[in-house]
Amino acid sequence: MQDSKRPAAAPSPEGGEAAPKKVFIKAYGCQMNVYDAERMADALAPEGYAETATVEEADLVILNTCHIREKAAEKVYSELGRLAKLKAEKDGMMIAVAGCVAQAEGEEISRRAPVVDIVVGPQAYHRLPQMIAEIHRGAGRALDTEFPVEDKFDALPDENGAEGVARFLTVQEGCDKFCTFCVVPYTRGAEYSRGAASVIAEAKRMVATGAREITLLGQNVNAYKAEGPDGKDWGLARLIRALAEIEGLARIRYTTSHPRDMDDDLIAAHGDVPALMPFLHLPVQSGSDRILAAMNRKHEADDYRRLIERLRAVRPDLALSSDFIVGFPGESDADFEATMRLIREIGFAQAFSFKYSRRPGTPGAAMPKQIAETVKDARLKELQDELVRQQIAFNASLKGRTIPVLFDRPGRHAGQVAGRSPYLQAVHVDGPLSLIGQIAEVEISKSSQNSLSGALKEAVAA
Ligand code: SAH
Ligand code: SF4
Ligand code: F3S
Q: What is the pTM (predicted TM-score) of this model?
């Protein structure tokens, strides 16, 4: 067991000390931002901050932002507009902008939105307590968008044992791939992997506090490479094999991967590690080699097809997910058709798709032949119609089958409980809340685009 750096509890109001301060954190964008939001709460707990879900109650509001598409970044400014009104009514409220917009725009944020007190990048948020203290000392504003040499994970207190059956664990950050459309290499910096021993220790603590499923996170999670407890270099597959040994950890997933980093060992792990769930999010972006080259993806459409073949050879029921971008500069009707062809050939259980968004500072933004919005709209609709058809068909294919469901939350209606299939679909059944944290067999009788429902195979006592 590692030394706990966990702080003492916040001063209690009964003790006559100041009432605990409240922090409201809102995460936008990817799951890594959700994980980071939890770690920000951990960093602030020693300062006496308790989390609140009500923004009006908050002494500190943190927006953990996303810069991936223009719409995502603009959302932050409309939220800041609303917060300005709240701050005007509430003495002493502090507002922080964290995450990728903070990294990309830095001081520009407080120029555009003077209501902001703190701007902190994704690699610097362990310093939030110092930044808050600076403001209390009258420093006005605080900004930190460094990529410090110290590891923020070493500097953060242990996670507070956030509850939950299915949790995220960041193992890798940053990206060296420089796809020409993408801001991530600029906002998150160079690829960096956490040491395997620290990841395993964190996973064990998660399991000790109720986790049954862990999703390993990274912008390029399958590029994971770090020192293992044996002193050797470990890749993601080796890490997954070690985590699969943790008693009580029933399910492992990982996201997001790059096709170039699917190595032999990771493909093999899909066949021989039962805890590794048969679901893979592997973005391909486009089915056209010309566009893939312009995107600097460094693989062709057939490389992707071959990878999927190899994965399905070791795990025939593997469910696939992907990301697609339509309307990248220069995308012709034929290029788009190549993407549609790839989608029809592979068959996806679900997918995310976006219109290309021109991001300042990325090579794609300066490329000629930007595509008209109306063309992007039409292509996105056609592509999404097909993906929705595939998702509905995939869900329907489970009807009549009995599958293990990990229950992790109450259902929408009283008397219902909800969980996930191995393929990541939401599953609803009538059953007691005592099922939460357990895996039970469910016979699927109904499916829709977004979920499955069915009946427990064996009655479970309430
Ligand atoms: N690291 C992951 C994805 C990171 S961003 C990967 O390599 O696939 C998540 C998704 O957002 C991307 O897969 C891409 O489909 C989309 N995306 C990124 N930049 C975009 C842009 N400028 N316009 C539209 N979509 C974008
Ligand atoms: Fe962005 Fe490409 Fe890196 Fe993914 S691999 S984060 S899309 S630059
Ligand atoms: Fe968005 Fe940053 Fe994640 S740009 S998608 S929050 S890495």
A: 0.91
